[in-house]
Design a protein that fits this description.
8 helices, about 55% helix, about 10% strand, mainly alpha
């Protein structure tokens, strides 16, 4: 599916909610994380250790020129504050066995409906709300879309569809704004684009947008 419509985003959101609800009812565990986890430490690139969000943060830190020291200092302060809040609650958040990449490139569409899921090579145990927010951001801001709905409307539609199948706990609700901020700001493709902008002299606007996302 090259370009999604709102109903596809809602269907994927509901499907992930169902998967997560089933995971919470099961005692099954893979005994390893997924490639979307956080706070693994990045000592290796093994699933459960690899923390792409943190690596993207360090990629940006390394790429920023001295003339943007003021902006980068604020980004670092805001990012670390959000991460600290999440890390303090991470172990208490619901976790379960998941497929690990429930996105359009791993779904078979027939007659405009999802008929199959494939590619389980990064399946593992994941903090459920982390996967939910990460997938919602990707579909709302980073995937081709066909329709009039804004990215925020797409994001809200995904989250509502997910929530209809698995309501969030109070702790998850508190963590969603922090997850949203750091994932939106530090998705790898956004950081790649931002680094290229800085190379072409357009770094200030990108860093100011990053500050807004983290604030």
């Amino acid at each position: 599916m090259e370009a999604l419509r709102l109903k596809h985003i809602q269907e994927i959101g509901a499907m992930l909610g169902k998967q997560h609800a089933a995971s919470m009812r099961s005692a099954f565990s893979f005994g390893r994380g997924t490639s979307w986890g956080m706070f693994g430490g990045n000592e290796t690139e093994e699933l459960g250790d690899y923390d792409e969000n943190e690596l993207c943060y360090w990629d940006l830190v390394s790429a920023v020129e001295d003339k943007y020291e003021k902006e980068m200092s604020l980004i670092q302060e805001l990012y670390k504050k959000r991460r600290a809040v999440l890390q303090a609650e991470w172990a208490a958040l619901p976790k379960g066995a998941v497929q690990g990449d429930l996105l359009p490139y791993n779904l078979l569409f027939q007659q405009d409906r999802i008929s199959a899921i494939f590619d389980f090579d990064i399946a593992g145990d994941e903090v459920l709300v982390n996967e939910c927010v990460g997938n919602a951001i990707f579909l709302a801001w980073h995937h081709e879309f066909e329709g009039l709905e804004s990215p925020k409307e797409r994001y809200d539609a995904y989250m509502d569809a997910y929530y209809s199948e698995r309501p969030f706990s109070d702790c998850e609700k508190e963590m969603i704004p922090h997850l949203f901020a750091i994932i939106r700001a530090f998705r790898y493709d956004r950081i790649e684009e931002g680094i290229e902008k800085m190379k072409s002299g357009k770094g200030k606007s990108f860093l100011n947008e990053s500050i807004m996302l983290l604030s």
